Amino acid sequence: EWLWHVLQLTNDAVMTLRPGHGLTAATRDVMLHVRTTTQPWLLSADDPRFLDAIDAALARCDWAAVGWGVDDNPASLEQILSHGNSVWRVNIAGQCLERRIDETVTAAITTAIANTGQQASEHLAEAWTSTYGRRPDPDRAYAEAVKAVEALAGPLVSPLNNKPTLGTVIRDLGNQTGQWELSLADEDGHPAPPGRLIEMLRLLWEGQSRHAGGTNSRRHTQSEAEAALHLAAALVQWLNLGVLRSKP
After folding, report:
1. 89 by DSSP, 3-state: which?
2. Which of 214, 204, 211, 93 is nearest to 141 (CA)?
3. Confidence check: pLDDT of 15 > 80
4. Contact by Cβ (8 Å): 52, 134
């Protein structure tokens, strides 16, 4: 019913339409996207294309436009999925399906995305979608997680470098340890040196498979992508909060 209403822009009872007659542009677009000749609302519930059609509808409908009913929007779909204990949920932007995980974890990532600069936010959001979306892409997720950290750490640590990588940031920070400190205290109550942050950055950087043909060249696993995403989110939060700071 939800698919029928949002794709055909109607609250009428669900029906089968003759091919080529009465299908809206949105319906035809979704059918083309999921590669089916079956009208999306008629797909079997156990057909993977059914969820793909819902995902495509979320991405292609203009939810900012007026005229959507209270039962025909991303929020109403999320309510259906939640009440059905679905493993899938509507993402916070209402633009796609994503795997439902612990709410506190989701909230932490959402906060990191919302409270950082645009570039880092976009990379972190893409890393999230590539990790937990309908079509997980662990390689892309890992790469985007690294870029999110680079977007903040590069200008902070290496402001004169026009193309800083996480590798150059780690090198520069290691060469300037006497100039930096953490807002966290060490065992003596003094600001801790940046060494432990450098280790976190190095763990993210060195775990990435970047160059084909190298000794570390491989496809990333889903587990690696998830770990990289959550580590990157923590690093983004730290950098946003000023945990890494110049010594007075």
Report:
1. strand
2. 204
3. yes
4. yes
Helix-strand-coil percent breakdown of the chain, rounded to 5? 55, 5, 40
Sequence-distant (≥ 6) Cβ neighbours of residue 173 within 8 angstroms = 157, 180, 194, 197, 198, 201
Q: How many other CB atoms are found less than 10 A from the CB of residue 183?
A: 12
Rounded Cα–Cα distance for residues 136 and 157 (Å): 32
Contact 218, 210 (CB under 8 A): no
Kindly give, in sequence order, each residue whose CB lies less than 8 Å from that of residue 171, ignoring residues fewer than 6 positions away.
none
pLDDT above 80 for 210 = no
The residue assigned the tokens 């990333």 is 220
Q: What pLDDT, in 10s, does the model give residues 50-67?
A: 999 999 999 998 888 867
Candidates 145, 144, 142, 176; CA nearest to 158 is: 176
> Which amino acid belongs to residue 187?
E
DSSP letters for 3-34:
HHHHHHT--SPP-PPPTTSS--HHHHHHHHHH
- The 10 Å Cβ neighbour count of residue 30 is 27
Distance between CA atoms of residues 68 and 81, nearest Å: 19
pLDDT (average), residues 72-79? 93
**In this predicted structure, what is the pLDDT of residue 102?**
86
Whether the CB-CB separation of 127 and 148 falls below 8 Å is answered with yes
Beta bridge partners of 182: 244
Q: pTM of this prediction?
A: 0.82
pLDDT-derived band at 211, boundaries 50, 70, 90: low
